[in-house]
Write a structure and sequence with these properties.
Layout (H helix, E strand, L loop, with lengths): L7 H22 L5 H22 L11 H27 L2 H8 L2 H13 L5 H18 L2
Length: about 140
């Protein structure tokens, strides 16, 4: 049996905690700074932190050891992340964190749909109900 810290649920919940902290900290940080510059600073911190984790944990290896397919999809994922962060910081600059973050979490709904459409994943009717509730909840939190 896996320990709690070794399972996906632990890491997913921890990611949610850090994502919540990100929204609040970024909203304060972007107050007197252009949103694109704020995104750059955040990105540099993420690169340095991820590099440190990879180096300390001994996971470092040459990019040439990765398959071209892996590199293409990780590059595309990185571009999508960058676009998401730029849009997210612009939204935080213009709106309230308590309204921006829930709409950003509509990504959960889109991941469910794309997972089924492109990855062949299957969701039960209960899963789809949860997806619908997430969508409805995000909209209800975001509107005034």
């Amino acid at each position: 049996m896996k320990t709690l810290a070794g399972g996906w649920l632990f890491w997913a919940l921890l990611a949610a905690v850090f994502a919540a902290a990100t929204a609040i900290l970024a909203k304060v940080g972007v107050k007197d700074t252009p949103s694109d510059l704020a995104t750059l600073v955040r990105t540099l911190v993420v690169v340095a932190f991820a590099g440190l984790i990879v180096a300390v944990s001994g996971q470092w290896r040459s990019f040439g050891d990765m398959s071209p397919r892996t590199l293409v999809f990780l590059t595309l994922s990185g571009l999508a992340t960058g676009a998401s962060w730029l849009c997210y910081f612009r939204a935080l600059k213009l709106g309230e964190a308590s309204r921006v973050a829930p709409l950003d979490k509509l990504s959960v709904v889109l991941v469910a749909i794309m997972g089924v459409a492109f990855l062949g994943e299957q969701l039960s009717w209960k899963n789809w109900l949860g997806v619908a509730l997430i969508a409805g909840g995000a909209v209800l939190v975001a509107i005034r």
